Amino acid sequence: MNITKPYLLFLGDADDTLAVKTATGLYQWCAPDCVGQLRLPSCVPILDLPELTLEQARDHGAKTLVIGVVNRGGIIPDSWLEVLNQAVALELDIASGLHTHLSNIPSLRDSFARNNAQLLEIRHPQGPFPVATGQRRSGQRLLTVGTDCSVGKMYASLALHRALLKQGVATDFRATGQTGILIAGGGVAIDAVVADFISGAAETLSPSSAEGHWDIIEGQGSLFHPSYAGVSLGLLHGSQPDWLVLCHEPLRQHMRGLPKQSLPTITTCMTMTLQAAQLVNPGVQWAGCAINTQAMDPPQAKTYLGELSDELQLPCVDPLRDGVSSIIRRLPLASIQ
Amino acid sequence: MNITKPYLLFLGDADDTLAVKTATGLYQWCAPDCVGQLRLPSCVPILDLPELTLEQARDHGAKTLVIGVVNRGGIIPDSWLEVLNQAVALELDIASGLHTHLSNIPSLRDSFARNNAQLLEIRHPQGPFPVATGQRRSGQRLLTVGTDCSVGKMYASLALHRALLKQGVATDFRATGQTGILIAGGGVAIDAVVADFISGAAETLSPSSAEGHWDIIEGQGSLFHPSYAGVSLGLLHGSQPDWLVLCHEPLRQHMRGLPKQSLPTITTCMTMTLQAAQLVNPGVQWAGCAINTQAMDPPQAKTYLGELSDELQLPCVDPLRDGVSSIIRRLPLASIQ
């Protein structure tokens, strides 16, 4: 799925910041790709981007209206439809990460039929994907994995990708979740692929590349999350990583969404993840740990990370506070400017 | 998905036995549920069942025409369509395990619209399925797992289910593949579920049951198959087994479909499978091994199974040659008549 930039971010009638987390992620990671924002009159949150009408956005070069708001209960309000239909009439593509099938809305379907614009539904991946072959591919691959869901895998992946870019390394960020896909302008929502093809879709996402090229692949879920471990294992095998970065949030009390399910220890998670990854690449190694320490005060975080680094003999950093340069230094980069 | 028995088996214009393996499986495991077979004039294979016209089958009580043949290249020949449309006109349901969407064929869609008959497409599971919760469920669960695909998991599961039934134990066979689903008259094609919902679909398939009740769950794939391990792990977590039976084919040279991928050792497979299963049920245990020895002569098979039993301290049998009673004896059955 390829999404054409630049974007106009649609914030709808959201009533708090959490409801526009897709837009916030895009603003944080690819603000230069966003010409502005479009807010309905009752919308509360606001980003530090120009407020534009659809016509103004088009005149500023916008190619795609991105739905940056998470809708509740899967119902698209009529107030959105007016904007969406007008956008299509102006030949803007629409990119949506919603579960709701926009293509099932008759007036919108008619608009697309009449105009030269595309509907890009990220949660409904275009297939068909092949069955995975497990064959080795050229180029280097790094995958972020986690002790749980929502522990910062996308953030760590983007930080690693950006750090490599700054060093002049040939690299691609390979997105597997909806916000990541919008940031990258492409990718596969891996948890929405039919089970038989998880690994095959991951192989397609990260094809053979030149020696010295690095794919930084956004991980999903956790091998230790009883709801989603199958997705994580299929992604791990299909990604065929040479390097792994473990993402973890130290103060989390239980697996996300499952109050009775405790987190694995970091070492248990590392041991089992490496075993599973060796099935497709016996040489796979740990590059380090990306720890989300936002719930700790800075001295506490520093002590924690220092002790963890000593224990694991690996760089352990909070990407947001410390950057990822100590992890990058462990990687065999072919070309450093 | 519930499929109504008894069946009329449709063998189409198949030119060898392998092309009708779905029908063969049904004949082997639920012949009393099959009123007969329907073969087109050029069909070569034949089962030991009455040859019936559609009208005769209906008069014998058939409720569902089962497509018992695997089509090549996904094209449904016109000669099949005539039979299928007539079946629908006689208000027989049609059950298909083909990848091809029969509902996309206009004449067939029209027939279904005009008549009181259902189209049951096993490879396209009805959803939506929930996200798995990982919550413990009552009743006992046994899952078959494998060192590879196609090593006899369905056969072993059916043999275990039948042996429990003979002992008067309350039990259900929970089918996860197309032939199993047709034999059981219901189930979920787990590899066709969207990735996020693999474990949730497995939880739905095997709900809480009475103490002393046994669900025998058909395994799929292998944690060690790079193409399908995500499916196997999601099924393992969602099934939440109390007992596991390992299925293995000793003379297999490589993982099915992947000439360069070697099989895991039995002990490696058992260690990692148990670790993964403990995530949702710390008490999970091995009940034994079901070994497909058809490529060995009887003395060789006997020696192999004896040595393996000694090494693992578990019953190791070929279900086809030896039955599964030694595995059943290890299980804590509440009610033996």
What is the fold's blueprint, element by element?
2 copies of one chain form a homodimer.
Chain A: E1 7-12, H1 21-30, E2 34-39, H2 54-59, E3 64-67, H3 78-89, E4 93-96, H4 106-114, E5 119-121, E6 140-146, H5 153-166, E7 171-174, H6 178-184, H7 198-205, E8 214-217, H8 229-239, E9 243-248, H9 266-278, E10 285-291, H10 298-312, E11 316-317, H11 319-322, H12 325-328
Parallel strand pairs in A: 1-2, 1-3, 3-4, 4-5, 6-8, 6-9, 7-8, 9-10, 10-11
Helix pairs in contact in A: 1-6, 3-4, 7-8
Average pLDDT of chain A: 95
Structural Rg of chain A: 20 Å
CATH topology of the largest domain in chain A: Rossmann fold
**DSSP helix fraction of chain A:** 25-40%
Most strands sheet of chain A: 6 strands, parallel
Provide the spatial order of strands within the biggest beta sheet of chain A: 7-8-6-9-10-11
SS-based structural class of chain A?
alpha/beta
Under CATH, the homologous superfamily of the largest domain in chain A reads: P-loop containing nucleotide triphosphate hydrolases
N to C succession of SSEs of chain A = EHEHEHEHEEHEHHEHEHEHEHH
Structure annotation, total helices of chain A: 12
